[in-house]
Design goal:
Length: about 300
């Protein structure tokens, strides 16, 4: 039997787009013949994954996972909402979220991590199926392009990191996910309840920054420029215009800064007042909404039919 080297596996992987474990198996089956291995992968439908990589994937799931004083969240995309109901896809999302608790939120590190439950490529070997390999396998098996788009992990030394998933399709998975890091010596159950309430607020109010100091300088300058031009149209003196802009900037902060926002649960209190009353500190948050920022392809079905018939 021909020796299957790491270089051969890498070459086949680059040519086919299939996972490492599948490439190793193909070479074994083909006794080291590269072309025969490619044919084997094609027959199994595994080399098709590379052909799907250019297709837009804006559906999928946001998944969260928790550990003591730590929580993680990932967004994993697919092409259609149908895949979000696939139990294999859901299991993959849950596994990657769990891995993010220890690996962290670097996407490349997550992709390189060993996929839970995977076996060695060869007996006594050190190779294993990575998260990237498992993703490639899913793409080939399910037949849609998929990607691990982003991840976030939050940790506190004292307190809790609460999670909230809006409209969950199953526990810990849905289309909007939120992490809320709360520091404090209060009972964990109390912090968890408050954290979940803040998570619901974040899901609804879509804050962009934790506090005023975290507002992106460029965004603030753009807002000031727009508000200044609007105020100048009033024809009032510069001193009055300056005060008008300052007032409108305060309003801007109330819209985009979490701690300055009105608490959605009572419509009166500020979030910072609610947190202070609980004797805790809001150390950070993250909000993922499935597909946000992705340019989705839209099509006019009637126009497509007309074009196909030579009328468009």
């Amino acid at each position: 039997m021909a020796e299957i080297t790491a270089a051969m596996v890498r070459e086949l992987r680059e040519k086919s787009g299939a996972g490492m474990m599948d490439c190793k198996k193909a070479l074994v089956e083909a006794n080291g013949d590269m072309e025969a291995a490619i044919d084997w992968l094609r027959k199994k439908g595994l080399s098709a994954a590379a052909k799907k990589s250019g297709r837009v994937a804006a559906e999928g799931l946001v998944a969260v996972a928790s550990a003591p004083r730590t929580a993680a969240m990932v967004e994993i995309n697919a092409e259609t909402d149908f895949v979000a109901r696939n139990e294999h896809f859901q299991a993959f999302c849950a596994a990657v979220a769990e891995l993010a608790l220890t690996v962290g939120d670097d996407i490349e590190a997550l992709k390189a991590a060993r996929y839970p439950g995977s076996v060695d490529l060869i007996e006594g070997g050190t190779g294993h199926r990575t998260v990237a390999d498992q993703l490639t396998h899913l793409i080939a098996t399910i037949g849609e392009n998929m990607s691990i788009r982003r991840a976030k992990r939050l940790h506190v030394s004292e307190g809790t990191v609460a999670t909230y998933v809006h409209s969950a399709v199953k526990p810990g998975m849905g289309k909007i996910g939120v992490l809320v890091a709360l520091e404090g010596a209060s009972e964990e159950a109390v912090l968890e309840t408050l954290g979940r309430q803040i998570g619901m607020h974040v899901a609804a109010a879509r804050p962009e920054a934790l506090d005023i100091s975290f507002v992106e300088p460029a965004a603030l300058e753009r807002e000031k420029a727009v508000l200044t031009e609007q105020a100048k149209s009033s024809g009032k003196p510069d001193a009055v215009i300056q005060k008008m802009v300052e007032g409108r900037i305060r309003k801007y902060y109330e819209e985009v800064v979490l701690l300055e926002q009105v608490w959605v649960h009572d419509g009166e209190s500020r979030v910072k007042a609610v947190v202070e009353k609980a004797g805790s500190k809001l150390a950070g948050f993250a909000r993922f909404q499935l597909g946000e920022g992705i340019d989705k392809q839209t099509s006019d079905f009637a126009a497509e039919v007309a074009a196909a018939a030579g009328q468009g």
